[in-house]
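queue> pop job 88
queue> type: inverse folding (structure -> sequence)
queue> payload:
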């Protein structure tokens, strides 16, 4: 391994401070099983494993599979919910160190957390132009719902200061 790569890896390790991770797209790709165009997280600004995360999806209007709506651009709220679900899965996954750090344990795709249910969902408005989408997920606690156990998460997406989606998600831990 070259000195330059070692320096790059060291720089990423230094972003892990006080129990928080700051993940760039390369880090996210090393952890999550989703791949573009289905990956809807561009950067994780803060991740406290098992507790909370803040991320950004830069909606550019050229996402694969999206065609202009007859009345203009619309980034569907279903994709906003999927982005929130991906962030919640990352929080619940237990990833607690940068993926390239010694001793890092990243669940494989078969043991990756998954969305079990959407217990509450309110779409406040549609995202009608390409802007950064700000995503926030907080773990509320462990819950059992009709035999299915999951981790309850409060999830919100906003853009330009306005709330887009507010949801309560149930995420099953990997292997459950």
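queue> result:
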């Amino acid at each position: 391994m070259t000195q330059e790569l070692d320096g790059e890896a060291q720089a990423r390790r230094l972003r892990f401070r006080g129990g928080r991770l700051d993940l760039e797209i390369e880090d996210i790709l090393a952890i999550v099983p989703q791949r573009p165009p289905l990956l809807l997280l561009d950067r994780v600004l803060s991740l406290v494993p098992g507790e909370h995360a803040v991320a950004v999806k830069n909606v550019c209007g050229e996402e694969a599979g999206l065609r202009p709506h007859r009345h203009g651009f619309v980034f569907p709220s279903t994709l906003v919910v999927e982005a929130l679900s991906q962030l919640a899965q990352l929080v619940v996954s237990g990833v607690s160190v940068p993926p390239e750090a010694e001793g890092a344990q990243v669940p494989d795709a078969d043991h990756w957390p998954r969305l079990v249910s959407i217990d509450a969902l309110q779409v406040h408005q549609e995202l009608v132009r390409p802007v950064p989408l700000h995503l926030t997920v907080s773990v509320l606690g462990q819950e059992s719902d009709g035999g299915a156990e999951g981790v309850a998460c409060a999830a919100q997406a906003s853009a330009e200061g306005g709330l887009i989606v507010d949801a309560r998600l149930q995420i099953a831990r990997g292997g459950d």
